[in-house]
Amino acid sequence: MEKKTMSSRTCIAVDSTCDLPAKFIQQHNIEVLPIYINYDGGQALDYRDPQTMLDFYKNHSKAQFGLAQSDPLSVNDMTHILKERLLPNYDLVQVVTINSKKSDVYKRVSEAALVNEPKFRELEKNEGRVPFRIRLYDSMSMFTGHALLVYELVKKIHVENLPLNKSIRAIDNMRDQVYGYLIPNDLSYMRDRRHLRKGDNNISWINFKLASALNLRPIVQLHRGSTEKIDTGKGFLGALEKLLDHVRKQVMQGLTSEVIAMSYGGTLDEIKDEPVLVAFREFCKQHDIKTMLSMMSMTGAINVGPKSFALSFATDKDLV
Q: Most exposed of 20, 22, 145, 295 (fewest Cβ within 10 Å)?
């Protein structure tokens, strides 16, 4: 995607769960708001730094991270980022967050903006600077769904040359069209962490022992805030093949976004050359659909388990 126009004093910011490739984030000057990861023996910051993510995946162990918890920045932390990183460089920051029902990121950023509002007005009065504004948008999605909406937002601004407010309205119309999918690879990981996750009470992990014994992997669909298991596959690659066949059918009847976003909870060298994925990306290319593949955020991986796979597309048609 060619970068064309947006004021250098305006930026898009996302939290680190947004599974965008590092190159895309860099090309479009997207600010990443980090998330704390508290694990057995310490604390880490997830801010989508490629080397930090590589180190995390190469050294990941269930003993250390199996019951790790993620926590958004505190209001004080967010105030520091506003003061040191955002306020000096921008006049307008458009934050696009993970589903507010799944995480408190939206709430924390909103609280920080409210607390600091008097300081912004004081700076305008005393220093004569342009008013500083921070806007929030809830993607109502996660991982690759979040990434797909930000991709479309960037496209509206940089390629279609739409103003920010019209661009937000455009992705708002697309938000309910986003279908996200997840294939967890370690069912015991999901079972052990079920009490730590928000909002997936519709999924029962009771039969994880049977599923593991049969080498089955669930395909979980996320749409309009609801989560449900739609199918299973034999092993991770069997589930991946089933999911990609399902997505092919949706591509054939038409998507509303030109991109399919994908992420993997590990190093991309582990997944990018898998024949089923290579064939799928070639199929998408032949149908003028772009594909993005990124490492899943560290936050995502500690919540759904390493070596999981996520994918999202958008369509206004009934699924087939």
A: 22
Q: Span 178-314: which CATH code?
A: 3.30.1180.10
How far is residue 73's CA from residue 112's CA, in Å, rounded to a whole number?
10
Within the chain, strands assigned E span 10-15, 31-33, 35-39, 42-46, 69-72, 92-97, 133-138, 178-183, 216-223, 226-234, 259-264, 290-295, 309-314
- Contact in structure between 184 and 217 (CB atoms under 8 Å): yes
Question: Do residues 296 and 264 touch, judged by C-beta distance below 8 A?
Answer: yes
Are 264 and 270 in contact by the 8 Å Cβ rule? The answer is yes
Q: Where are the domains of the chain?
A: 10-175, 178-314
Tell me whether domains 10-175 and 178-314 share a fold: no
Q: How far apart are CA 113 and CA 14, in angstroms?
A: 15
Residue 311 has pLDDT above 70, yes or no: yes
Is the confidence at residue 99, as pLDDT, over 80?
Answer: yes
Residue 61 has pLDDT above 90, yes or no: no
Q: Which has the higher per-residue pLDDT, 192 or 174?
A: 174
Q: How far apart are CA 202 and CA 103, in angstroms?
A: 18
Residue/partner pairs of 215-218 with CB below 8 Å, 24 or more apart = 217/183, 217/184, 217/185, 217/187, 218/183, 218/184, 218/187
Q: How confident is the model at residue 157 (pLDDT cuts 50, 70, 90)?
A: very high
Element (H, E) at 80: helix 75-81
* pLDDT 10s digits, 283-305: 999 999 999 999 999 999 998 89
Burial class (CB in 10 A: 0-12, 13-18, 19+), 201: exposed
Instruction: State the fold for domain 10-175.
Output: Rossmann fold (3.40.50)
Instruction: Please give the angle made by the CA atoms of 167, 29 and 17, to the nearest 5 degrees.
Output: 80
Query: What CA–CA distance (Å, rounded) separates 284 from 208?
Result: 33
- pTM over cut 0.90: yes
Mean pLDDT throughout 188-212?
A: 61
Q: Please give the Cα distance from 277 to 249 (Å, whole number).
A: 15
